[in-house]
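Cross-posting from the modeling subforum.

Setting up a comparison between two proteins and wanted a second pair of eyes on the formatting. Protein 1 (sequence, then structure tokens):
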Amino acid sequence: MKFRPCIDIHNGKVKQIVGGSLSDQNSKAVENFVSEQDAGFYAALYKKDNLSGGHIILLNPIGTDYYIQDCNQAKKALKEFPQGMQIGGGITEENAVSFIEQGASHVIVTSYVFKGGKINFDNLNKLVSTVGKEKLVLDLSCRKRNGEYYIVTDRWQKFTDVVVNQDTLDTLSEFCDEFLVHAVDVEGKASGIETELVELLGRWNKIPITYAGGVSSLEDLNLLKELGKDKLDVTIGSALDLFGGSIKYSEVVSCTDQESGSRKVSE
């Protein structure tokens, strides 16, 4: 299990929020933590600890003043850790290359691909043509409805008709290098992982998947490793002491294997 660190940016500041609380109206969200440090600070820390493959997420809508502020923060992080972090939030065919040129290793995409509630293969192919499959991460962040996990878009506010299952993973893996999956119903709550989703993802093993959502303890990391059959990487937000939580960042770094994931987390 590899630890993939995060930098979430909202209203021009590094924050941790409750995932399902984002609203376009007045750019509101329920905040767990607002950092006094900028995004460059966190990127420099991750670089020092050799934690490549983490992600920067821009949480404001594209076309707003806050989105521009988010991008300015992201530039600081990409400058500190070039080729060390991925970036998502408002990524389209038009702006994807600019983020790669600024130093992102990959672009992370949801809404542009899952347009109108379905998979927009035209947009997906445009992205592959623009940046290449090897630099594309698809964000399959999802919420449970009627017993199944549906991909959600537009800052996790809108349900699509696309279910996260083996067939969907098989199909989409042909177009991207990795998946990022936020369990939105537990995101930012540090209330425990979404076990059913983790088991579903752990039964599939073709390209890397990073799981995010609900990790609240080292015990949760062990459970994630067990239920995910040691196939999933992990990101931790609100529960990490870097962002006001109780899990020590240094312990997560030391007990997750950045190479093979072979070490067990110590409780």
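Protein 2 (same layout):
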Amino acid sequence: ISLQIIRLEFSHYDVKSTNTIPAKDFALSMVASADMNHISKLLDRADTLENDPYLKHLRITFEEFKAFADLRRRLESLTMAIFAYGQVNGLLTKQDLKRAAQHVCGVELTDRVVDIIFHVFDMNNDGHLSSEEFLRALQRREADIHQPAARGGPMGWLNPKNRSSLLQMLR
């Protein structure tokens, strides 16, 4: 995905040309391609950002938006890293996600971005990422950008049969 496309999408949300976008708009950009079976719940979670005293005032910069787009482009590596960290720790925490993004994908996510990701995708509010839905939303988004008809790709790692071979590779 080109830098121009990322800039266009960012400017769509940056209506006041402040070079930042509201947390809610960032959340909506993440769930834009979510599975239709789950999209209403994810949209509701994005809406609840406005009820959180900390998150409702957060603004995401273009650099943060671009870093997240870079992470989406490295989805297969991110998927493997998330399941590797998740297998080691049981459940994925905010620090696990940041570590996986940085060490495996070379992308540094800010605390603000991670807080918004967790607000939307920590479905039961236990402090752990609902990683399958998060990865599925990202995978669908990338598929829509590159090949709207294709839906395979990195999400094969979500298949339980593939997880054991993934763990073998990471040892």
